[in-house]
Amino acid sequence: MLVLGVDPGSRVTGYGLVEKGRRRVTCVQAGLIRPPSTSPFYKRIHAIFESMLEIMDRYEPGEMAIEDLFYAKNIQSSLKLGHARGAVLIAAVQCNIPIFEYTPLEIKKSVVGYGRAGKEQVRSMVQVILGVRQELPLDASDALAAAICHINWTRLESVKP
Question: Which one, 19, 59, 124, 150, has the greatest CB density within 10 A?
Fold first, then answer.
């Protein structure tokens, strides 16, 4: 099963594709979507949507895991994050990809074992789990962590009696 993980953001959206084999998970691709910062906000959101469509069309993931919204102190940042997240969700719906949402706490617990782990800790564990040697961008490793979290949850769901 190929899972697309997404860490949405209006400035930088991380994505990562993880393949679940019989005995291990591997990183197929990971990267960042960085719309030009000089573009108007609505054009950045559209660029995220278009880029996600390209990724989904190219790799044809079976499922998508995305970080759920969390409450932030800055309402403006939360609204912009919601717009970016919406662009990703609409792209997945358009491509008929099932969507699974996980809180940052669930993702961190699943990958690191501790819900308040820092981004660097998450990146380190993602690299160990996937056997990736090069240092990943933080947003890409967060996206891969979402995909790993989903694989862990679906594995646990299939074990239930």
Answer: 150
| Active site (annotated) includes residue 139 | yes
What tens digit of pLDDT does each residue of 32-51 get? 999 999 999 999 999 999 99
Is 7 part of the annotated catalytic residue set?
yes
Range of lowest pLDDT (6-10, 59-63, 67-71, 129-133): 67-71
Residue 44's CATH number: 3.30.420.10
Chain mean pLDDT for the chain = 92
Residue 57 known to be catalytic: no
159 contacts 151 by C-beta, under 8 angstroms: no
* Number of structural domains the chain divides into: 1
User: Could you list the residue range(s) of the whole structural domain that residue 90 is in?
Assistant: 2-159
Residue of 19, 63, 106, 139 marked catalytic = 139
Query: Of the listed 7, 19, 63, 106, which one is catalytic?
Result: 7
